[in-house]
Amino acid sequence: MTETETRTHHDGKQQIRRAVAETSSVEDVFDDTYKEQEGPKPPTMLVWRNIILMSVLHVAALYGLVLLPSASVSTLAWTAVCYLISALGVTAGAHRLWSHRSYKASFPLRVFLALANSMAFQNDIYEWARDHRVHHKYSETDADPHNATRGFFFAHIGWLMVRKHPDVIEKGKKLELSDLKADKVVMFQRRHYKLSVVILCFAVPMFVPWYFWGESLSVAYFVPGFLRYAVMLNATWLVNSAAHIWGNRPYDKTINPRENLIVALSAIGEGFHNYHHTFPFDYATSEFGCKLNLTTAFIDTMCFLGLAKDPKRVSKEVITARVQRTGEGSHKSG
C-alpha cells in the first residue's frame, strides 16, 4: 500500500468514527485500545445455581413440548402473543431503546416495553443494557460477557453458568450509565424486578388460558410458560452465538458478527449482526428496514402513532463507503 493509499484509508476510518461519534450517544462503539492481559487466564468458576436452574428450565420446556399437541388453538395463539411481547421487551426495549438509544420512546411505550422485558426474564433492563454496551465496546475479548471466540456453547449459554471474567466486571463499572439511572421506568423495574418476573413471565401466561378458555393448568403452565420462555431465551442467545460464527460479513470483514437470516427470523430482526456491530446506533439494526425485521416494523408503527420519535438511521452514502472499504464482497442491495 502506497503512502497516499494509507493516508486515504486512515482518513476514511476517521470519517466513519466521527460519523459514529456524532450519531451515537452511548458507549457502544468498539474500543480498539483495550488489550487483554498476558499470561494464564483466571480459573473458570462454575455457578451451580445457574446450571441447575437452566437444566430444570430446559427439562420443563421439553415437557411443554410433549404437551404441545394437547394445547388448544387459543392457547397456541396466546403462546405466540406472549413470545412476541417478550421478544419486543428485549429487541425494541432493552436492546435498541435502552442499550443503544437508537430512538426515543414516550412514557407509555417505555412502560409497555419494561413490562414486556419482565415477561422475557433476561435480567432487568439496567443490567441487560450495561452488559450489552460492554459487549459492543469490547467485542470478542476477555471483557466481552459472551465472548464468541471461546466457542459456540460459551457464547450461547455457558457464559451464564460461570463467573464473569474480571475484565467484564471492571469495564462494566467504568461505563457511563447515567441515562439508565435517570430513567424512572428502568429504575422502577429494577427495584421490583423479581416480583414482575413472577407475575409477567410465569403467572400471566398461565392464568389467561386457564381462566378465559378453560385450558388445563399443566398445559397453561408448561406451554405458554416454560416452553415459550425457553424458546425465547435460546432465540436471544443465538444472536450472541450463531450470529457471531455463521453467516456473511458484507459491511466489515474484520469483525466476527455475521448476517444470519435464521437468527433474524427467530429473534424478530436481530440477525443482521454484521451491520449492527458496524452501525450500532441504527434503530433498524439492518440496511433493509422491515424486511425480516418485526422489531423495526413495531418501532415504525410506534413512530406513526406518535409514541416514538427520532429513529436514528445510517445514510446510504456511509453504508456504501463502508461496504467498499471493509466489506468482504458479499453485499447485496435491496
Descriptive account of the structure:
This protein has one domain (43-326). It has a two-stranded antiparallel ribbon. The two termini are 33 Å apart. The chain contains 15 helices and 2 strands. The radius of gyration is 20 Å and the shape is globular. It is an all-alpha fold and 334 residues long. α2 (48-67) packs across α11. It is a multi-pass membrane protein. Its EC number is 1.14.19.1. It comes from Cyclopterus lumpus (Lumpsucker). Residues 1-14 have a biased composition (Basic and acidic residues). This is stearoyl-CoA 9-desaturase.
Largest sheet: 2 strands, antiparallel
What's the overall geometry?
Answer: globular
Structural class: mainly alpha
* Strand proportion: under 5%
* Helix run count: 15
Task: Compute the number of structural domains.
Answer: 1
Q: Care to count the β-strands?
A: 2
Which percent bin holds the helix content?
55-70%
Strand order across the largest sheet: 1-2
The pLDDT mean sits at: 92
Radius of gyration: 20 Å
Mind sketching the topology for me?
Elements: H1 3-23, H2 48-67, H3 73-99, E1 104-105, H4 107-120, H5 125-137, H6 152-156, H7 166-174, H8 178-182, H9 184-191, H10 193-213, H11 217-240, H12 261-266, H13 273-278, H14 294-304, E2 308-309, H15 316-326
Antiparallel strand pairs: 1-2
Helix pairs in contact: 2-11, 3-4, 3-5, 3-10, 3-11, 4-10, 10-11
